[in-house]
## 1
Amino acid sequence: MSQRSHILMTRTWMKQVREVAYDAEDCIDIFWYHNGHRNCNHNPIEGWLRKIIRPLKTLRAMHNLAIEIRDLKARALKVSERRLRYKVEAAFGGASDAYTAGHSSPDYNDLDRWLPALNIDESWLVGVSEKTKSVIRLLEDGNLTHLKVVPIVGFGGLGKTTLAVTIYKSPTVMRIQTRAFLAVSQHYDLRILLQTLLRQLIPITGDPRSSGEEMDPLRGIETWDISELIGRCRTQLENKRYFIVLDDLWSPEDWAHLKVAFPDNEKQIAALIPMIFTTWSLCPLKNLRSCSIKRAFKLDTCPPLYHDLEAISNSILKKCGGLPLAIVSIGGMLARVKNKTRAEWEKVCDRLGSGLETNATIGGMRRILSLGYHDLPYHLKACFLYLSVFPEDYEIKRGPLVRRWAAEGFISGIHESNVEEAAAKCLDEFVSRSIVTPTRIASTGLVRCCKVHDIMLEVITSKSIQENFISFIGNRQYSAMGHDKIRRLSIHNDSCGGDKEQEDPNTNFSHTRSLLILRCCKKPLPISFAHLKLLRVLDLEGCQWLSNEDLKKICKLTLLRYLCLRRTNVTQLPKLVGRLNELVTLDVRDTSIRDLPETITWLGKLKHLLGGRYRHWTSINRVKIFEPHHALRIPRGLRNMKCIQKIAHVDIASSSHAMEEVGALSQVTKLFAINHEFGGEKWKPFAASLNMLRESIRHLSIIHWRYKDVGLEIFLELESPPVFLEKMYLWGKLSVLPPWILSLNYLTDLSLRENFLDGELLRQLGKLPSLVSLKLYHASFMGTKLWFEQGLFPRLKQLIVDNAPNLDELRFDGGASNLERLTLAFLREPAEGIFGIKELLRLREIDFFGEIIFNSLVKGIIAEAKMHPNRPRLE
């Protein structure tokens, strides 16, 4: 039998084993589904009646389940016999790698792909500096009074987006006041793209208590038609010098559709477009030599056997064909090798085959990227495949991702006290292996958001389909068709409201255990929630079609562990939510849900209760404000939710009984509370409970939303303050800073707003040993001078100063020596000025935001930035 026949037979056998395992798990879930219906009622009388009637209704289901279990045992025996009969193990050891090395999926197209690089460190890049200067010269040369377009072309992995981002962040471009960076992609939605452009071009200004367009000029943007969106874009750009990056643009026709939004006026204008269809091309990196092993393969120091490894590293680089994506991917794998010996690296080199050294094709790079998958530990492979549920160019948020991984059961078997923490470590592992690229990084170094390179996404998607791990609707390359049973389903935006005829209306969704529908304004295929009895994970973020009636059906899915209703139009949770016995995460952020039903307290396994709404004031989301009237009202009975860890945000004025009970919940780590009534009486139950949570709380937010009402005095003298607190947000007037804050040795992130504190604030906070981020929002500081003296804030990396009303001088005099990000907003120009920027030797970014930007102030900062050794970027 040929090797290929062995491989195909092994794949068939593996599919049979996988389907038996899936069906066995379905049987267990069906049993728990019926068992859950028996135990989901907390009304004693109704529960007694159900105990009599329910067994009669479920008797047939249990009988069918017994028959299915018997059939499963027979199937398992047959599969085992086939393995012995056809000697599958003879090919099993190398089947996966051999198949990957010789297989090129017919579904792949040699398409242009872009490399997410929004936080890339240019010091690691080869040849980018010269290319950046070359493109900037193209932008500046010639006619400066008409629209200038500079396409960057080449196939995926060459670093087109890396180059575009480097140019976008260069000092030359940073001086252009109006800028935007848009990810277009092959299947872009013109309406969403124009909305994204306007959100970058038009900042949200005004007081949070204002209303209408005075507060938010983009209010109602979701309802604007295409012509109005284009008109607003042209109005915003008219008579301005602007710089726009359109990333991942595919055809001249796409550019023809988009360019109507960009007026050609009498200013110097530039558009930088990484694309596939013009003659100015980006080539693979040449003459790399070894790039030094340290630089090419991301090693902090060169191995002791540097000269022994140099030759083999050159061979690996040659097979990478000069493609940055391939180099980074293989580099991430080599960095994980424990024994950095020539023999180990030669194994990697041999596995690359001919690689890309003779022909830099997409197929060759796909083969290289596949090695990263086979190099993963077993428990990471399911998490890796799950990344394919997200559409192209999607920014993946850390929190929701790790909570979904945990809900899917991917982290089971790992010995960790907290499953979500173990899932977070998996994401960090992917970052270190360059499987995902960070797009937002906190000052603490924590990766907040990430993206998957499009070619890597194709590799993941292909493997997911091979293993029937994920099915897709709304993707032109992949479809739910062809799978015997759909286990996990991802519905993308382009399936909503159209192309329904492309899918089989008889497709069976009853075995679906995970359903992800993102950004769908119209209801997709006629999937009935009532038929999804095995569903564990349901993410409906941004689904505007979702109704309160749909929620009633969803709340009958008793196996649900994860339910996200974020950014939907639902207004009320039904009482049926109490049936969701297995629910771990309930996310109702950015909805109109305020009052939670009393049955919410029946959810004994719930860990994450997330509500409320933020408004972001900068494009990079570093400056945000909670909208006070969007907090949740929780009923009595919170003490029954023994597993609860995160509660955000709760209205304490309407949840006083719940606040008395929260102190009994020893697992709570995150607690956000708000009061918008006058006086501090409503805080008493909350403060009493806070004293009981001193060892568990890690993240605390206290908001007293009354401008000049001294309502937080009760927190000045807590009996037992939270000793392990890491993040704190304190909004409300205080006579003095609570003294216990100065003893928080673990505090890394502190945000203050409308506290009206005096000039001693910095001297008090400057001694906190772990403080990395300090955000002084509106009216938190009332002094005239912010002076960062020598020795203060030893670890501070991020500082936000937002509209300190009396500020005359901001001075850095030896303090905050590790500061990297400085964000400033002023209602009036400081009379004395800003001094000491040059003393901040690690400074990388300076951001201005707000209603008024003073030219003299900005010019002074720009002048200092030019002389600074780091040349910090200005926004």
Note: Residues 90-124, 276-280, 289-293, 497-502 have pLDDT under 50 and may be disordered.
## 2
Amino acid sequence: MPPRTFALDLSSRCSSYVCKSCLDSLRPVNASFRPWLARPSSSRSATRRPQPPPRMPRQAEGKPDPAELQRILTEEFERGPDSPASTSENGLDVKFFDQEAPGRIRRLRDNDEFGVVAGGLDSEVETAINDLEKKMISTVKMLERMEVQGGQSGQEKADKLRQQFKKTIGVQYKDKTGPAAEAHRLMHIPRFTGPRQRHVTNLNTFLARNDVVKGGIPRDRDVAECWKYYSAARRSLASAWQNVPQEVWNYLWMILSWKGEGVQNPNRMQHVYILAKDMQAAGVPLRDSQQLLAMEAMFIDGWQEEAIEVWKKGVVTLGSKPETFKDYWELGVRMCSLHGDTERAQKAADTLLKSSHPPNPRILLPITRALAAKKATADQAWESYTNMRTLLGETMTIEDYDEVIAMFLTSDCVEYALQAFVDMMFSRAIDIRGKTRLPLRVANHFFIGKWLKRLIGAGDLEGAYKVVVYVQSRGITPSPIQVNGLIAAWLRSGSAENVEKADALAWDMIHARLDFVKLRQRQDVVGSHEADGTSVTQKADAEPGFIYYPTRATAETFSIIAENYCSRGLHDRLQKLFDVLEQAQIGPDSFLMNQIIRSYSLHGEAAEAVNLYHVMTEEQHIRPDGHTFLTLFNSLSVNRLIQRDPILTKQDIATARRFFRDMIRAEWTFDSPDTLVQLPRTVLFSMLKAKDFRGMIVAARAMRELFAFHPTEALLIEMATGAGSLQVKTKRNMQRLVGGRHTIGILMKKHRTELIQAGHPGVEMTEEEQVNELHDVLEKLVLHKAGALDMAPEEVRPLLEEAAEEMGVYDIVFKKDPDQIAKHRKLDKRMPGFELM
């Protein structure tokens, strides 16, 4: 056993640097030892900090005076890295002592001798272990990259290397699982009895599985099950921690602390914190890397002050070793910055940046964020950002700028955020801070629009709104395109708070539009104007004669809000919006018309919706589109009511035919493949539900010429069984589906029999003949449902001609007039995906 040493004890909560033997002499006889990760029993108040141990009488001769020794060592520790008398590499002069015999102490020469005396390992051996750990981690990452980038061959090579890697490092303890593990005491926890023994047995079963770690990389299931079994067994293990082998602790730490791509470990820090406490309770020493991770886990778990105290005590060991120097000081910067101790965080960052290790200037980002969180220290945050920018030079990335901009926007320091964005766009060539008038290269809606687009795309909607308010206060009117995009993004988020913000901003834009219309009507531009609660004033820092207005609403603004009101069923608000639209002198388009028609239809006012459609198309000359007619057909009672009304259903026949006639005569084209699929389907099913069989046949023939519509076999089966039978997989619908398939099969067989009788060989059919077959089967299906399948074509034709005249497609369906077909064709050949189907 190595001799006892006077070194910093991480297990102590005392802030002084005292050796273990002296602490033992200062404690009462029955004082209980409290590990550094143990939570105090009281609440997280200032009284949680333990009281210093009581002073004891002077010890007998032969031992050094503990109080005097504590004073000397405390002075040495508190000198810190900034002390001018520091002589070590990192600015901290630490002296180590060894008690060789009672009353005799010897000062150790250096850190290496302290490592040998305290840990029992030679410094070269410890360095070799740390190097081996780093090589193992880098090897695993290399194998992951090889699998991703190398394709099939790369994966095979990675598998071969992984097998060799497993043999070398023994991740799965090959040939030592199951009974062999129990014999070697590696992956087995022995000698546990009691009512909760089964939990330890389950944990042993988990540890003995050969497939727990696949290729040295845990899976999501491995991490979840490892914590499941270990957390259940903790209570039993706590009764005899000494029975848990070191290899089991190492294995549990590897699984629960794993952090890598493709592995989900959301509760990683909480599990690490609990595992580290258990290991200290069991007397298992933590490696340097484990101590750092345990400190971070303790901090994240809510014990911030305690974690920082432990970190400060680790300056003697972790902060002076080359292997942990960088990680130690970076952890201190992050924790102190999050805790609000920016002064200590800055000192830690200075220690790191002034050391011989390769500096990472991005360590200043946590400090900048902590300083930017308060307006009082915004100037210091800007100075920290400029220092980082200077150190990074040309290596500073756009992501770094984005992070800095987000920091200042969060704390409402929009001017600093704008300056950071200007630095990114103009390579620090323009300085706008403190200027009353912004340069023209910045003070324009094109430049601000780029910034807003970037913020909205990144999801920083609150920051984008702060930018809108700020630039409007500086006499810059943002483009309506970006502001409308912000409103739409708020609405897409779905949260009640964002929906309210979007509604308020949209109405502010609408009021600005109304003010503009009133001023234009009066033809008298004045310096100040009040309207609808919106102030329009002459800006003090604006150019002479410049009148400042907020961003005015456009047709897109009305469309976004109208769609939201319609989807939320706010019919009254939509009516008010439509009334304001006329006052704003913005002509409604087809989108707005579709939303108001849809809203009336959903509100149970289908007649009013149809009347509004006629008024807007005939009096206001709004050109309808495919969505308009899709909305109109959906407004029919057969599509709205669950229980059919015979009177309304009879009225739907005439209404549907008028809709179809208007749809053919209107000048519009399909704007999306989805509408091209939905509109013909909706037309046919609407007429099928209304039992307008003649209209169905005429509509199918007309849409074949104008829409390039060709029914699919699935559509025929669905029409034979009823709408929705293919989407809902119930037993009843499946029976109807089988019956529908049987009906379509019979009709197809009848069609091919007629072809053979007409002289067709009936063996192979061309693509055109297959399309003709589907159309013929559709018409036969309609006649079958109408009970007129046996009627001669000469008897059916007059009925179809009458319907074609009423639907306005007689020249298209029966005369096949090429001029009329070309005039009313609804396909835009320039749009992809609209080729003949």
Note: The first helix runs from residue 20 to 26.
## 3
Amino acid sequence: MSALQFTKSFLSKSIGYARIFFFWFSLVLKELGRNIVSVLMIGLTYFLLWHFPQTLDLLLILNQVDSVFNIEVPLYFSLLTLLAYLIWYSANYLDRKVYDRLTVKKTFTVTPNQIKGNIHKSQNVSTSTSTGKVSSHIKRLHVRKTMPKVLGFLLITISALAILNAAEQFGIDNVLSDIMKAETALLLTFIFMLLMLNYTIYSKFRKFLSALPKKKWFFYLASFSLVVIIILLGMLNNQDKQSILNLFIANCILAFLFLGYAFLSNKLLSEKTQIFIHRISYVLIAVVVMLFFVFSVNPEFSRKINPLSVIMVSLIIFYMTAFGLGLLGKKYRIPLLAIVVVFCFLYGKSTANRKNFRHYEIDYVEAKSSQKRTTLNTHIENWISERKAIIDSSATKYPIIFVSSEGGGSRAGLWAFLVHSYLNDAAPSYYSDHLFSLSGASGGGVGNSMFYSKANEAFQQNKTFNFKSDKPNGRFKYRASEVYKNNYLSSSLAALLGRDLFQSTFGILPDFPDRGSTLEGEWEAGHLAEVGADEDRSLLSRNVLSFYKKNEVGMSPPLLMINTTHAQTGQYAVISPVDFRKDQECRGFRDFLDDFQQINPNKSIKLSTAMSLNARFPFVSPAGEVKGVGQFADAGYYDNIGGTVSINLQIIFRKVLQKKFPELLNKIEIINLVINNDDEEQIDHSKPMTQLQAPLSTLINIRSGHTKEKLEDLGKTWQVTLKKTPIYTEQNLMEQMITTKAEENDSTLKDEPITPILPLGRYLSNIAIRSIEARLETEEVKKKLDLLASKMNEIESFK
């Protein structure tokens, strides 16, 4: 063969292969377009489970359940499978000739595989035509039939590999990640499923499957065995961070089961069995619709289940709604789904701009004239004067404490609350004599406020209060843990994805609390139940200015500085009991209460409202609105530890001290008590990024950058850091069954400690709470807190 002939032959074959590839690729793109709702749903699930911090954490704590029979995992798996089944099954109705023939009665008795058979029959193409036409038709039918199955399988695989990805993100060592990273595994899975859309490759794969036993009993036995393995993996869970791998394996088995059912059920399951499974899916859909309706009417009902399951319930409803609109639009040949989405977006924007739309406006309370604020300088002078005699008489330096508490959801709030509780019990004069101010962001600010409200009540009555739990045989040592054992996340998610979303768009429902106000009510109820109050209502429901009167012996209380971020300007806004506008160091801050009372004279806000403005996590909580002032979001946007306020307060404090009390300069010790979280995430700062990534990454990382700067300014001397701490736990059911009497009597075979995951969101498992309490008792933390307590107690001995 000459070189010219070889070249022509090579080009001819290359062009032929290219035509085949582009024909197949066009089929794939066309089917993706037909299944656009499913594609978008899978993309949304990928974003939520792989790149959204709070849902990343929720995956990790599915295994942190005290009960032997963990219903959280089966519920999540059931909802995940139902959504995958809907993605597979609902695509059948996209063929107009099929859904025109289906009646409501037939819908409940026809399986996906049977409808796909109808699709084949509905294509009026003879199989006796030329080989090329038949081949193209078969390929087209194969892609159409296989694509929904591939998408359903990808959904479950994304969930499974998200668990492995979460383990990698949190630095949990495991053999699987050493073999292959989660992102690589997902990419390979995606490529494999793409290959299954090629009829030739799929045919060869079927030959491989043909080697499996073709008996129905084998399929039933294999399916039952795999389900049993999933259940056993849940029962073997010991709540350790390593148990996340059991969850990953169980989710992989679930994906394998779905794949087997989708591709083999038509041959290995009887028609009655398929119809039975199909009908079960309709029962589950009815349950999901009912749950979504209940969650929308009463979001607090959702607190009974894991937030991840609440998300799955909402995603199923969104999918069915979007698919129904798309199907209706296809029937009448109009882009109904696109029209509805654009309309909702534009109408939602106009709703937000309406002057009478007050859904996200914060709650107001009456402010008494006696609650007018003094200036910051005056408060400092009074605070020092009231303690001057003690400072003068002391033989050691008098500790004055400025607290800065880092954000980080419920784990940060509980940690701050616990540290304060420990110090208050170890040194009774902590709050009354030595604590000057508390500042924080997000969860840390909430923990400060939880402690402050009760300590202030005892301070006003000149009494003491024991923050340790008084429950006999209780699981936790501190009242703070009892408060934070509640699920404060599910209701926010249920409202966000339900009635708040509808109200934000249309603004036509009767007035009801938004998810921010709902959270405030949950905090108030949880705090009242565990910490109590002299009044019938929670301390957190009181006016934020009502805490700042002197106690019975004429002592001024510490300052609780609650921070937030003004959305319209990006400025730090401080909800302060004192007026700081004249102080040079604070001129960059917005005085929230001054701005607020200029628009709403004789009004104020509840402490719980101030707490929520401090901790409005993006999207999960709405930006709180004050008409005429603006909207306010999480304080962590600006500074996630509140150190900016603490540092400026110290500058002003020192100035007042030098000017008014110079004789005390050498008699006091300024202490920066920093209550922070351990940042275990290792970031490769040298890793390059694209020019598209760089701007957004810079904006996101500014928050953590500011926080690290403030941590450096505050110093490490009195830094009390929360870290994952090992604890001992009871044996699970399976471990008890396999433990022999000899092993029980052998002291060398005691349970090993476990190290639970500490999630970022507003939902802590009991095992995580116990781990946080255990951190308080470690030598590293206890040594610092005991030393600080001894400094305060030593001053007491000189009184």
Note: The CA atoms of residues 291 and 775 lie 38 Å apart.
## 4
Amino acid sequence: MTALKILLSMVLALALLLGGLLAWLHFADLTAHRSWLGAMIGNTIGRELRLQGDIDVDVWPELRLAVTQVSLANADWGSEPWMASVGQTELALRTASLWQRGPIEVRLASASNVDVLLESGPDGQSNLPIVSSESDADVQEAGGGIGVVLEKATFANLRVRRRSAQEEAVYTLSHLQLRADGNDQLQIEGEGRVREQPLRLSGRIGTRRQLASGGSIQYQLALQLGDADMILKGRREVPRPDVDGTLQLRLQVEGVPALLQALAVPLQLDGQVPSAGHLTADLRVAADSFEGALEAGFGELTLTTQLRGADNRLEVNGDIDNLQRLASIASVQGLPELPLVFAATLERRDHALAVPAFSLDIGGTKLEGRGSFAAEGVAGNFELDARGEMASELSPLLPELPFQLSTTLELDAGGLQLAPLSVRLGDSDLVGEASLGAASDGQRGALTAELVSKQIDLLQLLAVPAGPAETREGKAEPAAEPAAAAPYVFGEKRLPLAALRGNRVQIRWMVEELVTQFLVLEDVDLQAVLQDERLEITGRVVGADGGEGHNRLVLEAGKDQPRLTLRSQLRDFRVNLASGEVQKAEDIPPLSLSLDLNASGASPRELAASSAGEALLTMGPGLLTNSLMQTFSSDLVAQLVAALNPFSKTETHMQFQCGVIALLLEKGLANIDPVTIQTEKLQVVASGEVDLSDEAINMVFNTKPRKGVGVSADMFVTPFVSLEGTLAAPRMGLDEKGTLLTAGAAMATGGMSILWKGMMDRATGTIDHCKEEELQKYAHPPLD
């Protein structure tokens, strides 16, 4: 009896204590204790909570809590002192449901005049208060219900601001209400604004009991955001020990461009964005795994995906029916009209996301890789391998050659690095490493590269496929309309100098053998440096058949007027412009060039009109093939060669002895004097000018026979030939009587016309221009 009395006494004492606590909560003035309550809650969440208004509590017949003027402090690094404030909030529960079996019954949940600021700190952390959480196993309950039956919820004047270093987005709700209807369905209705776009929301989200117990839920929501309309409907079945869960949904969107604009989605979609889109999902969820399918449509573009997951592993595979259609949305041109097939396996390992394998297939091209992302979502390491039988399948701009690419990609806070990097395209190869540093202090990351190639075959890389382009159906594409002739060779379109602004580049590329159409170069050393809007490119080359060259280009775009400087020095290169198949390299005339040029301007036309400098081109003895000279030249040049050389149609080869072209350029006016070409049987001398301001040409050529070689002057029926017009539309004039050309034969310096000067030269044309003492006048300076 004594023990029973003690137990009854303890129960009575506990009941009295609980009754006293409830009575105190019911009748006490909690407003007087708001500082203490705020401090207690603030210590729990690790952030100051300020209670400045009234606190009202009732415990019977329902538990009701009403609080006004609540403020929650921001993170210490936040841009404002307070993260959130609530003007008024109220929560009402049926008191008996707190100790009875079954869900808690919420009669009313309301809040008004709510202002929330969400922002990220310098290291990417959120300003939301961080509280310790239990593991999923501790909080997950069988059935997956929320354990709450909601009767009514109302919210008014809600504002959420999301702030970042780039912008601040504002989302507002003037009102939002959830209320159970006569069939126990929770109806939702509200309106507000998102980024100044009007928002309307309506629909149903299942019955109250289904939400509380985790039963089957059918939902349908309609949302209008600006000019965009969305409908979301589906069914959810929460997994239970003996039943798999399912999720079925379909999202339809009308007005996709308006939706992307309203949400300020950072996608560069410059092409024709389809107006309609949809997403369908059908997933089956078991206790420890799930699988299902996603299907999305975006205009005529279709994406299908299969998903399978278990524990920390996810397998994804699918396809996009038309890669060209996808790229055209972002105004990316040149991609093939082929399906893209993809597959990937993802695993969560400790603090990283591993990708044991992924692949992309486009026609005959395959990309494979493996790697991982670090937990912070920035650092990553990937090994990539790509190969294909025809690079042109990816883009018509690429040649019809097989290719291979392999590299290891590393991404961290310092930037992106490709090391090692190996590329092969046909017979051309490239190995080395490249990196792109992270942006800092308003500067883009610096691009650096060290590259080496054993061979670069430009003949193979630039080869044009024979025959007309064909579509997937095999039909030839119609010929494009010929473009209207441009009035100027040097166009007036401004150069894209803005691309140099803020960029930093340092590249070195060494090529053991560079194959071109006219010569083979060896030991090519190219370097490019871009810093502070100043681009400098230098190149040193050696000819496989002799010769050496030094070249330097400097473009200073940061000045008030962009400035270009070009210096080129080539010595004794055997450039096979028209020698054809020769027995030995010595049969190719050696070519030397000295060029010093500077100009200023923002367009090619401005640069040409302001250019100044000088150039000297000389050629030594060798063999030229007359047919090749006309085959590899324009119609006009072919006519000019035929007019100046009466042997071009009767003799196969020409024994070339020497050539000199000197040019002096000042304020866009190029004075070309002399032009001297000497072969075994004839001499061609010329002089004139080209005004780059309007691109007008005024040149006169004078042809004369060499004495002592048995050639009669009567063979030269067109000794004088003029070249007139413009660079874009040149024309040739000739006079078989040698008395008159056209008005293009303008007055030269000193009052002597170009024509008269040519006639005097013809009358006294006994000089051998290829003698050493004559060529000494046009000797090139030594290489720098």
Note: The first helix runs from residue 2 to 27.
